[in-house]
Amino acid sequence: MNRSLILLGLFALPACGAAAQEVEELIYLPSARLAEAVRTASAAAPSPVLATTLEQRDDHASIMVRRTESSGPELHEAFDDVYIVHEGAAVLVYGGTYEGAQTTEPGELRGGTITGGTRQALAPGDVMVVPAEVPHQVVIEPGKSIIYHVIKVRRGK
């Protein structure tokens, strides 16, 4: 009888310890949608920047970007940027001293210059995370281009 109670107790443990968890709406971006965004970026008429927003919420955004010229320096006070490179190449300059920036909207600085930043080459398959409050800039060599997916994630609320 003791053996039966012990076995019954073991089966009951997971049910007792596992509480139901509320799940907010999940976000699903199927690979076909991402592939289509990359194809669209590849085939678009020449322009220095093409940005397609795939998902936008208060706490995050998902954007496919094609660049044929460098971005200006920028800094986000509350958002991390996660770069996932699909095609092409660029250099991401980050850190250093950021001067001459202008606030374009609350928590967003753009323009100016980065001095003494670290240079990181980016190629297809690379993932780079730029934390909030770190100045950064995507630098494109003349005649080159890059297609990347950037996911912007708000730091804790």
Would you kindly provide a written description of the structure presented here, covering whatever features stand out?
By secondary structure, the protein is α+β, with helices and mostly antiparallel strands. The protein has a single domain (2-154), classed as Jelly Rolls (Sandwich), CATH 2.60.120.10. The protein has helices spanning 2-17, 31-43; strands at 49-56, 60-67, 74-76, 79-88, 90-94, 97-99, 102-105, 108-110, 113-115, 118-122, 127-130, 136-139, 146-154. The strands form four sheets. The protein has a five-stranded antiparallel sheet with strand order 1-2-13-4-11, with helices on one face. A three-stranded antiparallel sheet has the order 3-8-7, with no helix packed on it. The longest helix is centred in the N-terminal third of the chain and has 16 residues, at 2-17. The radius of gyration is 22 Å and the shape is globular. It starts with a helix and ends with a strand.
Summarize the structure.
This protein has 157 residues and is α+β, with helices and mostly antiparallel strands. The chain has two helices and 13 strands.
